[in-house]
Amino acid sequence: MQEYFDARLERWLGAASLIVISLISLGNVVTRYLTGGSFSFTEEFSVFLLVVLTFAGASVALRRNRHIRISFLERRLPARFRGALILFQGLCGLIVLGLITWYGGKLAFQEYQWESLSPGLGLPQWWYLVWLPVLSALMVWRLVQQTRERLNGRLRDDP
Questions:
Q1: Residue 73 counted as domain residue
Q2: Could you give the 3-state DSSP secondary structure of residue 117?
Q3: Domain count, the chain
Q4: Which ranges carry the Tripartite ATP-independent periplasmic transporters DctQ component domain (predicted)?
Q5: 76 burial level (CB within 10 Å; 0-12, 13-18, 19+)
Q6: Range of the domain at 88
């Protein structure tokens, strides 16, 4: 059953992001301690990887039905109304994630068109921003999977 709720890609991205953030931060601390200076790229990469980690973790939580929500009403409703509430919850999530995907994609494309560079390292800004619509679109897919499983009764929202 575990493989059924798997979000392998997101788990891998989250773990890799956390490992790289840890290594970058450790290297920066050691360098600062030994030389009095620090790496210039650490903050820029750490913030980017933190965004990837956040979206990857949220996607895993969606797939495993572990997002925080108030389910008091859902547990109290009769079964015939519960499905409508689950659909409403899924639709609300779909709207929010759809807007993030759309506007995130628009922002990444504009940064690509304008050839904006990152302030720290001078890398193309869209390299960082393109992950926002990609990972939020992946979250849309995980939300659809979760909603379908909840409607079929394979995922329950137990307290």
A1: yes
A2: strand
A3: 1
A4: 22-151
A5: exposed
A6: 2-151
